[in-house]
Amino acid sequence: MSLYAQIVVNGLMLGALYACIAVGFSLVWGVLNVINMLHGSFIVLGGYLAYFAWLHWQVSPFVMLLAVSVGLFLLGFLLQYGLVNRVVSQPVLTTLTLTFGLDMILYNLMNVWFDATPRRISLDLGRLDLNGVIVPNDRLLAMLLALAMTGVLYLVLRSSRIGRAIVAVRMDRDAATLMGIRVGRVYAITFGIGALMAGACGVLMSVVFPITTNITGLLLGKAFVICVIGGLGTVPGALVGGLALGLIESVAGNFLGAQSAILVGSLLMLVLLMTRPTGLIGKRGYQ
Amino acid sequence: MNANRFRFPARGAHLLFAGGVLLLAAMPFLADNYFVRLATFVCMYGALALSWNFIGGYAGYPSFSTAAFVGLGSYVGGLLQNAGVPMVLAWLGATVFVSLFAALLGGAILRMKGHYFAIGSITLVEVLRMVASLWVDVTGGGDGLNIRILDGGPDFAGRVFLYAMLAVMLCAWATTLAVERSRLGFGLRCISQNEEAADMVGIDTNRYKTAAYTLSAVYCGTVGAIYASWVSYIAPTDAFGILLTLKVPVMAMLGGLGTVYGPLVGATAFVLMEETIWARFLDYHQAILGVVIVLLIFFLPGGLLKIDYRRGLARIRSAAWARAGRATATEVR
Amino acid sequence: MTPKLIRTALLSALLMGATALAQAQSTIRIGAPLALTGGLADEGKKQQVAYDMWLKRVNAAGGINVGGTRRKVELITYDYQSDEKRAQQMAEKLITQDKVEFLTAPFGSGHTKVVAGVAERYGIPVMASAASSESVFDQGYKYLFGTLAPNGGLVDSMIRTFTAQMPTVKKIAILGREDVFPRSMAATMKAHAEKAGLKVVHNEYFPVGALDHSASLSRIKASGAEWIYITGYTKDLILVRKQMADLGTTAPIITMITGPAYREFIDALGPLANNVSSATWWHPSSQYKADDVFGSTKAFYDEFVAREKHDPDYVHASAAAALIALQKAIEKAGSTQGAKVRDALASLDAMTFYGPVKFGPNGMNAGRDLPIIQVQSGKVAVLYPQAVKQADLVAVR
Amino acid sequence: MGRLLEVQALDKHFGGLHATREVSFALEEGEIVGLIGPNGAGKTTLVNLITGVVRADGGSVVFRGRDVTAQRPWQAARSGLARTFQIVQPFPQMTVLENVCAGALFAGHAASLAQAERDAMDHLEFVGLAHEARRPATALTLPSRKRLELAKSLAMRPRLLLLDEVNAGLNTAEIDQALALMRAIAARGVTILLIEHLMKVVMSLSQRILVLHQGELIAQGEPQAVIRDARVVEAYLGSKFAARQAAHGVAATPAADTTTEVHR
């Protein structure tokens, strides 16, 4: 019994992490219709910043959460404003290739600055033991953060001026332009938020997870799967998709073995793509 | 993707191409094996880029299945060879298998469009990779698959594989020409511009798209099989490399989408660029390549061939329409 | 435009080739395709450091003595980006363009195979410093030599020592990465453990690029294993250990191949690394007097620490040893001809700071007593061999 | 005169909206029939049903004796059913000629691309666009685009041509040219189903008129008779007006409002 409970808990904990990974990616995708190949590197960058701050100045990762968020928001904002915006309305392939190129640059720089040694902030926050079922605190924290980030984003998008602008642009770019919304700026801010979320997730991962430049591709891949399972470009979708994937991998991993688990995830994604491209929660947009 | 974005002054292009092919073929006599290998890579990527061009360029579907087909081809080819099938037959076998695979899959995967299709096609790579590493009894799993090394010394091997790849590239090129001038090519261009309208004028879009997807797989399979015999060792992560699947479309873009020579020019330029860059800058080659890609997006959106086009257009702007007309005529005939 | 591009590149490179040729007479040229970026970047950099240390020493001594004349050594390195296609391309470039007479293999069994495949065609000796899977050496390649001992060696002495010190241990759980080296380490352990009468209660492989192991670890926990044996790359092992702690999956013996052998494993895990045991091919505490450029293990160790500010691990040592073996073979053969040096390598029996180097018929360094280590209060302690033993096996609490 | 198209009890729902209710009618070879009705009456839906763009919930379409209810648009196009769109959609990056070519090649059964191009040229001549043949389709003016759309459909060698609002947005002079063109097309023996707001056009071309209102076929027959039909008048001008007319015994003669659109 407790094993099955454990499986579910594992799934949720992993799912929370996945949700963290995917939220920003999903947002950018939904609003800009851009597949941001930089996303994985953004996460790792956030992780590295947190790590080195902790290593050299013993800054707690939770303090860094703020600093990194601000830093990556700016980075994202500038990248979008200066570069991506210029081609944002062009075909998928163009934007994808551009971000791919940018990712090569960022990846290379990180490799030179930080080298690929896997690093982790060896803080251990302990775990809860609910009669036999173990809940690691840091993962729990990841879950809360994922929920918080999603919630905040959701509120921002619904209530704030910029939020409504973002939604408007997402719904109908031209109409939004006519309404006097500065689409370019909105895009930049959205991309910034996407990067911010990636960074925050990276900080969190640096406690849970060995950070190395080698995992950028992996993280990106997961983001793909999650977004598709949850529904492309919707913030709640990322959360649902993350949790769903986590559970699937945990259950499959338990009954079919670690290898099949990932295969099952990908297969499910393919099937969803073909049958239900709007994902598990087939809602377009945020309202 | 502008269908008649430009028509390369046909004869000139063919002559340049012929020259290029001759140079590649002569490589073993001009330079050492490193250049032979380089030439082989040019042919290999040329063939892959041309293949991708069918689905990505003509039909306008952003496919990232290349690595899936190449990987599949290399495993099928390798396994056949280990089963005692003669090398060349193994290559053909792999080609057939991969083509059928793509044809059967196409119907399903092409129901998606845009981003969805892009991801679907890239997931295919992942799935196959997982299968290859899971199916230990057949593929050897993560241990990889050993294929007997072709004896006869490096020069001989070098030539065999250069000419094999060159042959594949020529086939891909010939196929492209045929398609470019056929009903199929015309239909695919219609689809890439407006799928509904294409449907309305009587184009069986599903059949056409599946055809394009299959064409984009055929030579990938061959290349994969040849590659397997060449390296004599394949493993899941390398055979189904995500990098390859991203590189090839970039090459095609670099040259010019939906054109006969764009992919070839792009592949050649890309390979030479990589060679020169990594050799010069040990630490920063990747970043530099990244910068190059970014610059390309901004300054050569139409691909390298666009340059000639612009110049040509400027020179004979007056006769532009007439020329376009002749071009259309040549394309139709 | 296609031909034009090629032609220009052709000319420029032909020039490069020419200059290369000119130098080839005076110096001995060794080619090193390294993974400085991509998945294996970290390991690639380690090899680079060790090679460079050896190179400096050799050239300081005036070079390698080839039949009476000392010839300086030149090491040409390229980054192959952890990409198999590029690895073989580099190998060919090094052989044909830079006219190297010898090659070193990249990190890892898979890529070693690929490079060896190219070198074999040219009859260029390849020194592999980080490939230990028999599957690499059973290809019948005549020019491939590896300084690591077969995996079997690692496993056997470990089973013996542990079962001797903890006879109660009967059930072992094995979890390995689906990748050449880790896979064979896991497979070997399963085979040998069963032979030694241990009960394998869990045996599983996890895919390359797994981001989570909770499922497997929960099941291992339920399996009641007394010895948990994990193989993988450092980043996998860090994650696994962390998640074991998270999930309360533990056992008297936790072995991670080859985690504790790497400093970054201990750095990243802190207290969690304590009492994790492993086997490795080399450890600085096993001191050897050697007649090589370093003279002794201590000399190598001191120079390395002075240079890198941290302890060397087996990759560093093995990489340096590979070049030492090559040097000795060249001196022995009195020539730099591939075939001659190859034969010299095949019959080599040298004592290096890294330990004895004697290649078996398949080209692997003959198995010897490999160190078994355990992290004890943040430091690596050697449990075996007796000669250099520093501590007894401590159970994981 | 054989029966070309037979529509039986065609039914279509969009969620709550009942777009067409049990619509039944038939077209004879060589007829020109007008299909009118206020906005949202379901005219375009009907065309979409016939050409297979949307699937019918019920009923059947028989074209040239074959049941084509379930066929896909490309099959419809090849079987001789051509239609123009309210909003013209050419292949934007192709020349005018290539656009027409597409029609000739895939539905017009042209033997080769060369053949298709020759046919296309003829059709461009016919609609008077020959001089624009080499220009990009997007460079055309609205009237020219409508002509292109016509040429494209003609190139498909249609037996039945469904013209959906070909005249919307044209001025009087242009409409007169369009009228002449449609007559010429009819003269070629192509059956035409004409969807129109402009009574002038409908009245002067159609031999019969079908009136659709809220998805229902409320009247069909002789143009003059149909527009005097009380239900039609009511559908267009509302019940009060209809009642008043009935009282005064006057009929809404088509002459009263020629170029202006009746409804509104």
Automatic annotation (TrEMBL), chain C:
The keyword Signal belongs to this UniProt entry's keyword annotation: yes
Signal peptide residue numbers: 1-24
InterPro entries to which the protein is assigned, alphabetical: BCAA_transport, Leu-bd, Peripla_BP_I
Record carries keyword Endoplasmic reticulum: no
Residues covered by the Leucine-binding protein domain: 27-378
Highest taxon of the lineage: Bacteria
Key words of the record: Signal
CDD domains cross-referenced by the UniProt entry: PBP1_ABC_ligand_binding-like
Family listed: Belongs to the leucine-binding protein family.
Protein name (database record): ABC transporter substrate-binding protein
